[in-house]
Amino acid sequence: MKKKLRAFIFEELIFVAEPEKFSDEDDLLEAGLDSMGIMRLIMFIEDNYSITLPDTEIEPDNVQTFKALEQWILRHKNA
Amino acid sequence: MSDCKQDILEPLNIADCFTLAMDEEIRQDGLAGSLCGFGLELSQSPDIEKLQQRIHHFSQQFPVALASLQQRGKRFYWCKRETPPQLFFQHNCTDNQAEHTFQKDTVKQLINHKQKREETTAIEFHLISNSTKTTFFIRWIHPFCDARGIDLILKYLSAEDTSAFTQGNTQPLVKQQLDKYSWWKKLTLLLKGKRYIASIDRFESIQPFKSEPPQHLNYSIYKLSAEQTAQVSKLARKQVGLTGTSLYYIGCLMRALDKLNPEQLGEAYCAPYAFNLRKQRALSPLIANHVCALFAQAPRELVQDRNKLFAHLKQQNRDVIRQQLDYAFLPLMWAGSWLSLAEYGKVLRLTSKQKERSSFWFSDIGTLDIPSSHFLGAEISSLFHLCQVTTPPGLAFLCCIYQKQLTLSYNFVEPLASPEQIEKLHQLVLAELLDES
User: Which fold has domain B173-433?
Assistant: First the structure.
């Protein structure tokens, strides 16, 4: 899952000179993920994982890192 | 017009053509065309010799900076000039009387400077100094680049190593995005885009000001404090969530306009805005336009209810992205680029009832991260951006955050609006942004 998320974020949303060095705990918001990017990311997740992410959960805690994103998706996939 | 193609440096991409159509519309209004500006307020003069070297280096690496925008047949191109134009200018105040207005007067002259399109320099760099203040002002014609490009050009000028700033031989991002779609998908998107525009056009747009013959562009810049900016960000997150900061600015302006002129005719406020196709933090491409367009629209009755308005704008934005209506503009822009400028301008501006679609123009370039707050030895105290706008609507509202402070730039056409009216408007916008209304 993380591989797919990483590919989408680094190919479509933010430029990172060395993506392989960007860890699962590094801050995506600091790296430039902006409001439009978050919106696109959410649509990507909903389409690819067949889940609906509630607006009320679109918080920095859930989108700040790859680790947080994965946990957020898993919570909804397993619900 | 010449048929000679030997002097062609670059064709315009489809997003450049979009801005060129607006250039023509603005010129038809008797204004200076689609000139844009970006200003850095500096604590002192930067290293001028270094600055000149960097500008020279920039023009060598990106020769379109020295080119002339010309029509060849039906299409437009950046063409080589016989004599390269001057790109760097210094303006020094010599009149003590005019000291306090020197910067603004000079910027106003530059942004309102009328020239034939072919004669207009793609980009110019101006250092404007009086005894206490220095402004570094970049003026460019919109088909040359977009606002993100200027951010990158500033970084280029202040970088010790410019090797990361390559335009490369890659296709424009608008073309790259379009090439991802099959012929059939392009057609589907085009039809989706047409239906989207038709749905926007169900409402007659409210114009912000009375109708009068335009004379020139004026501007007012307001910088919020770091505390105010933090409060605005907190409220934006509360109202539109993490995904809609720009929508918060748009909604606040809609509400402020409605309070300023509640009697203006029309049914809804409608704002076009561009979104960038570059990846965030990417250092290229610098020049040309790499944007696509979207609309934010809200009927007046929703504008009058703060919570309903933001819920509506947020849902509208979500629907647009979910249905790929944002990218639906790309095939529309491609189709429009084959029209004459006059036809394309009408399509972009007017509804089927021949009314202006936009209530105001909007741009949010987000948080700028120009490094270390220094520009070739001078500290940057603030910055602002400007753009010419068609009449109607005669108003462009531009936002950016620098050093944790939100800067609001109101660009307005006189005499449709006056600085006094804009001051009133800003007070209303501020009250909305801070939820003190």
Answer: Chloramphenicol Acetyltransferase (3.30.559)
